[in-house]
Specification:
By secondary structure, the protein is of the alpha/beta class. The chain has 22 helices and ten strands. Helix 11 packs antiparallel against helix 12, helix 11 packs parallel to helix 13 and helix 12 runs antiparallel to helix 16. The N and C termini lie far apart (94 Å).
Length: 537
């Protein structure tokens, strides 16, 4: 709503202007009135109105002088000058000062309406122009950030080799600070199942966290830009070393913001890692590498938001590790036997022993990777089945990026491998049963013909003796019993549903010897075909 101030030395004129038009219909309100120039100027400076309607002749100084003093103070409201007589000199001065209109007394409603309508139109145009400028500046700022963010993509993901001169020319970066740091924010999901990704949660948190970090520390950096990559936010910061403590202090303020995120998504947790400080852009990749390595040490710092690479030591060569050879052999055996329960039990025992004996996070990660390689090797030794069930190395190792706690990461790998073993076992069983299904289909379609074990085994591609053994193992019946059941079942249907002669029915189900058919039928039903028909038809 636009604010209006009315200035006139006569209160009846002020009252007339106040009630001459419906101000609310113009989305305007009267913010104040004054009877002299000095009071009017003070009111304008305090209220900062959008429109000032003033008489030319007012005490202290004229209406035109009021316009001049308001403009000198840096305010630019729309002015409407009113006068009791036509004075070209005042009108000329008013026009030079950019006054919107010059109205003569007595003020007419139509004239004031026209002046206010013109102001509204002009104000709308100015507002739209302001919005366009703001949008343009936002677009330019966004494009500049995208160009600079491409530097991180090229450097850290595409592994491009970049010189300082190229960085300034290609990415418009001005590194005026004496220090460089890589800052990485990791978002962990501690209940995510192996075959799912909490995309909704990440889409909510990552952009908001990225914006919050920028708002907190960009004022202390000469350059700060970032990318979101693989459920983490990677920042490049360039600043003067004197600002380092203040930057860290600002980042600590994120704790409350992160607690708010966890109230919405309690399964998520956030950690920030500061890579080692670098003196030049050429060493920034080393800062990034140190941040990536430091996050492996999170298993010993569960509840800490910020981790600085300088504050942590790795296990070093002298750290004792566990001999995993026996564990590797045990896992390979379980995979070879497709022993899902045994594999899971072995992984749980290995996990408990690792977490009990090893205190360094990077050593836990090393052992995790060694076991992952062993599992991949074990699956690689299995014959390929359809559909493809071989595990993927990236999926196995993703547990180290997905979970804050080592137990959760190890359980992820265990569950993932168990599911692969289960699918493999199901596919293998399905593959083994395929020739039996083929044989059963053939028997169903040709039961009324002369069928032998040799005939059907030839169709499946197996030796008769092996096929006979496989068939009984899969169906719990030998070949001839299965064939007889099929034939007798069809004979029963024809005895009940038709009046065909029994010898004709016997021939229709594959028996040329009537006496043999009757004997087989009676053995199966404890009734002769004739009695069966009388009983059930």
């Amino acid at each position: 709503m636009l604010k209006v101030i009315i200035v006139d030395d006569e209160n009846k004129i002020i009252k007339l202007i106040r009630y001459l038009v419906d101000w609310s219909s113009y989305d305007m309100e009267i913010a104040g009135t004054a009877n002299d120039g000095q009071t009017a100027l003070s009111l304008i400076l305090s209220q900062k109105p959008d429109i000032v309607i003033t008489d030319v002749r007012i005490p202290n100084f004229t209406g035109v002088e009021l316009v001049q003093k308001t403009l000198t103070a840096g305010l630019c409201p729309y002015f409407i000058i009113i006068s009791g007589y036509s004075d070209f000199k005042y009108a000329q001065q008013a026009i030079k000062l950019g006054v919107e209109d010059y109205l003569l007394k007595p003020i007419k409603k139509n004239d004031l309406d026209a002046a206010l309508t013109k102001i509204i139109s002009k104000n709308n145009i100015a507002h739209e122009n302001s919005l366009q400028v703001e949008r343009l500046l936002n677009t330019l700022s966004k494009n500049e950030h995208q160009v600079k963010s491409q530097l991180l993509t090229d450097l850290l993901i595409k592994h491009a080799s970049l010189e300082n001169s190229a960085v300034k020319e290609l990415y418009n970066c001005e590194f005026s600070g004496d220090s460089f740091r890589c800052i990485i924010f990791y978002v962990f999901c501690n209940i995510c199942p192996p075959d799912a990704s909490p995309s909704e949660e990440y889409q909510y948190i990552l952009p908001r966290l990225q914006k919050a970090v920028g708002e907190l520390i960009s004022g202390y950096c000469s350059e700060l830009f970032s990318i979101i990559y693989n459920e983490k936010i990677i920042f490049l910061s360039n600043y003067n070393q004197a600002m380092e403590k203040e930057i860290i202090s600002q980042l600590q303020k994120l704790k409350l913001r992160i607690l708010n995120y966890r109230s919405i998504y309690p399964e998520l947790s956030v950690k920030a890692v500061l890579g080692r400080r670098a003196d030049s852009f050429a060493d920034f990749y080393d800062s990034y590498s140190s941040a990536c390595h430091t996050i492996q040490l999170r298993f010993q710092q569960i509840n800490q938001l910020l981790m600085a690479a300088e504050d942590y030591q790795t296990s070093g060569i002298g750290n004792p590790s566990l001999n995993l050879q026996a564990d590797k052999n045990e896992l390979l055996q379980k995979i070879e036997l497709l022993d899902i329960e045994g594999f899971t039990d072995s992984m749980i025992r290995i996990r408990n022993r690792l977490t009990e004996k090893l205190s360094y996070g990077d050593t836990l990660c090393q052992h995790y990777s060694i076991l992952a390689e062993t599992i991949l090797f074990g699956f690689g030794m299995l014959p390929v089945t359809e559909p493809e069930t071989r595990p993927d190395a990236a999926m196995l190792l993703k547990g180290l990026d997905y979970y804050e706690h080592f137990d959760a990461a190890f359980d992820y790998m265990t569950a993932l491998c168990a599911s692969w073993l289960c699918r493999y076992k199901e596919n293998k069983l399905s593959e083994n049963s395929r020739p039996i299904r083929l044989a059963q289909k053939y028997i169903q379609e040709h039961y009324n013909e002369s069928i032998t074990l040799e005939t059907v085994s030839k169709i499946t591609g197996f030796h008769p003796a092996y096929f006979s053994s496989l068939f009984k193992k899969s169906t719990n019946q030998n070949f001839m019993d299965y064939l007889t059941d099929i034939r007798i079942t069809h004979a029963k249907e024809m005895l009940i549903q038709t009046d065909r002669d029994i010898s004709d029915i016997a021939a229709s189900v594959g028996y040329t010897d009537l006496k043999y058919f009757v004997r087989i039928f009676k053995r199966a039903t404890h009734l002769t075909p004739t009695k069966f028909r009388k009983l059930y038809s």
